[in-house]
Description:
- By secondary structure, the chain is α/β, with parallel strands linked by helices.
- It has twelve helices and twelve strands.
- The strands form three sheets. Strands 4-11-10-9-8-7-6-5 form an eight-stranded parallel beta sheet. A two-stranded antiparallel ribbon has the order 1-12.
- Flavin mononucleotide binds at residues 25, 38, 76-79, 106, 108, 132, 160, 228, 250, 252-253, 255, 283-286, 305-307.
- Belongs to the FMN-dependent alpha-hydroxy acid dehydrogenase family.
Amino acid sequence: MSTGPLAELHDKARAVLDPVHYDYYAGGVGDEVVLGENEAAFRRLALLPRVLRGAPTRDLGVDLPGGHLDLPVLVAPTAFHRLAHPEGELATARAAAAAGTVLVSGVASTVAIGDVVAAARAVRAEASVWFQLYPQPDQDVTACLVERAERAGCTALVVTADSPVFGRHRRDAEHGFHDLPAGLAAENMRDLPGGPPGGVRDIGMSPSVSWRDLDRLRELTSLPLWLKGVLHPRDAVLAVEHGVAGVVVSNHGGRQLDLVPAAVEALPAVVDAVAGRVPVLLDGGVRGGGDVAVALALGAAAVGVGRPVLWGLAADGEAGVSRVLAVLRDEVDHVLALCGGRDLADLTPDLVVSRGTGVSGRCG
Ligand SMILES: Cc1cc2nc3c(=O)[nH]c(=O)nc-3n(C[C@H](O)[C@H](O)[C@H](O)COP(=O)(O)O)c2cc1C
Ligand SMILES: CCCCC(=O)C(=O)O
């Protein structure tokens, strides 16, 4: 059982959420093996701190294609925030902007992207919001979504590649949860080609999605493109060859294929394959500053958090999301100090060892 401020927010969220919506957020695919492994894999890793090389203050900033982060944690795209809180994505956007980080706002947002970006910019004029999308089976719909994101002022696109079909979530099937409650909708899907006038189209998944779709997106927009949901190092290389601005190592929070490795276990091979050509992000199972530090030491430029943000939002709206980001910021800073770091570049791979296997001598 975990304790601490983030676990408390999770407990509060569980208490206030409709159990069906709690299970939608919390659940994973299949037997939820990967869901558990994402967190468990971090527990199997340890940090070997360096001593006597500290600094009075630490710089946690990261520059990425599409925006600067004041802390190496951004908000991963998660669907339907108005299930958690009436202000939904508006509250999340304000909290992310105030913390100086990026919100990756999903196509499956219950607030239209233009309103999400406006909420972030009202808090901080230079706030960056990225737009996540699934390439839609109908290319006109994809093009329309990209245009909406550009018009809204998004500064990057995140293309999710791990969902050629949707994962089968048993908790949702058991509850019969298939539709949003009345009054909530995926607002970015309103008034699209082929959809009902004024109404909302379903978000499509396309089993035939291919690298050609990524190329088409590159032709459609000059925004930096991130490819999310990469686990195989060969795909990371292909992504670089297809001109992505960055790669997100992710197993969708254990919600797609229940056979894959934990995100942090897939990270090192992708980092090796990419070889510094573009930044690599990781999401999945990050639940504290120590996890952030481990992921960065293994080569991630920053990490995304999904469920912790949803728990903060459900527990206390904008203030709850702000608290999640403040806790992570404070914990990363503290761990970095304890590792004798002055900035994030001091988190190097030699600081990460496996728990329970001894420490082999490396003096690089
Ligand atoms: C409720 C929920 C909805 C999600 N919706 C999306 C989505 O619409 N698009 C997407 O690319 N990823 C989505 N994800 C995956 C997250 O972006 C991210 O990969 C994952 O949540 C990270 O794991 P964590 O929750 O352990 O931090 C969703 C995750 C959750 C939990
Ligand atoms: C069509 C909505 C997709 C949401 C999603 O990606 C998830 O629940 O994991």
